[in-house]
Amino acid sequence: MSSRRGGTARDLYARAVAVMPGGVNSPVRAFRGVGGAPRFFVRGHGPFLVDTEAHELVDYVMSWGPLILGHAHPVVVERVSRVLGDGLSFGAATPGEVALAEAIIDTIPAVDMVRLVNSGTEASMSAIRLARGFTGRDRVVKFDGCYHGHVDSLLVAAGSGVATFGLPDSPGVPSALAELTHSLPYADLDAMDAHFDRLGAETACVIVETVAGNMGVVEPPESFLTRLRERCNESGALLVFDEVMTGLRVALGGAQERYQVYPDLTVMGKIIGGGMPLAAYGGRSDIMAHIAPAGPVYQAGTLSGNPVAVACGLATLEVLDSEPPYDLLEARSARLARGLHQACERHGVEHCINRVGAMLTLFFQAGPVTDYAAAKRSDTGRFASFFHAMLQRGVYLPPSQYEAWFPSVAHTDAVIDQTIEAADEALAACVKGGWPRP
Ligand code: KE4
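Above: the input record for the complex with KE4. Below: its predicted structure, written as C-alpha cells.
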C-alpha cells in the first residue's frame, strides 16, 4: 500500500486526480472556479495555513467557516487531546453529547431540543424529512443561490459549488423529487407571497440561509425574514433557518438572535463542531419529538455525537461563550472591508462588498448584489486573477467568487493590514497585467 506523502503540489495533484474524482473530496477545493492546481496544506495555526512547499498563507477559507477561533486554538486542541486516549468512538450515549446538546440549547434561542449529526448536509436533509413527517406535506421552498448541502431535494438552483460550476441543478436527482422543491428568488417578497397564496397549504417547510453565504454574502432586508415567519404561521409550513454558516458567527445565537426572528427548526454545523465532523438540527420540542426513537421519523448515524468531535465542539462553544468575540470580529472585519474598498477605489476597480459581521464577499462588479441573479453578474475572470495574485502574495482566499471570506479571532489588526497591503499590490498587478489568468 502506498504511504507516500509530500512532493510538489503538482506531483500530489497528479496522484490525487488518479484516485479521487477531480483530485479532491469536495468540488470547490479543486480550484475549478479560479483555474490552476489546488494547493495542498499540511498545517494550520492561528490565521495561517502552511502548504506542502512551506508557504505560510493568511487563510480566509478557515475550513469554510468552522474555525472562528483560528486554526489549532490551544484550548480546543488541549480538550481534544485529552479525550483521544479514551477511545475514538463508542456508538453509545456519552456524557459529552448531553453537555453539548445543553450548550447548544442554551446558545441558540429557538432550539429547545437537538439531534447531533455529522455534516450540514445531514442536518438539512433530516430537517426536511422531519418537516415533511411532522406536517404530512411534501412541498419544500428554498431560495435561488442558497446552498444547504448536497441534499437531493435541495440541489435545485443551489449556490456554493453548484454555482461555481454553473450547474443549474444536479444529474441524479429524480425529477419527481425536484418538482416538489420550489426555488424562489432570494428575499423576493412577491414571489414568496405568490407561492404561499397558491401552495401554502401543501408546503411542509421553507428553508433559508438567514444570511446567504453561498452566492457570496447577501444580507436579506429585515422584512424578508419577518414576512417569512408570518406566512409560515398562516399556512402551517415550518420555518427552517439554515444557520450552518451564520450560527455562532453573526452573533453567538446566530442570525435568529441578530434579527430577532425565530424559526421552528434550525440547521447548524461548522462552528458548533469547531472543525470536526459535527453538525446538528433542532428546534421546537413538539416537532423534535417526532424523531426516532421518540417518534416515527427515522434518522440515525454511526458516528453521531462522536466523543472526539463533541469535545472539539464543546470547547469551541465554551471559549466563545466565556468571552464573546463579536465586537472584535465586527471591528476587524470592518477594517478589512474598508481596506479592500479603498484599494479597489485606488486602482479604479469596479467592485462591491457585502458583509455581515465576520463573513464578507468582495464582488467584482458595481453591484448591488441582492440575490443570485445579481451575484452571477460578477466578473469571475477578474476574481480568478485577483485570487492568484493574492495567493502569490501570501493570502489564501476562497477559490470562488460565490463564497464568503471568514476572518477569525486570530486575524489580528496586523494580519488584516498585511491582507490589505497584499490586496493593494495584487490589484495594481492585475490592472497593469490586464487581469491575467494562471
Ligand atoms: P456540509 O455538508 O458541507 O457540512 O454543510 C453543507 C452546508 C449547509 N448549509 C450552508 C449554509 C453551507 O454553507 C453548507 C456548506 N458550505 C460550503 C461552503 N460554502 C462547504 C464547502 C464545501 O462544499 O466544500
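Notes for the reader.
The pocket of KE4 is lined by residues 26, 28, 64, 119-121, 124, 147-149, 160-161, 209, 213-214, 242, 244-245, 269, 279, 403 (CB under 6 Å).
The chain has a mean pLDDT of 95.
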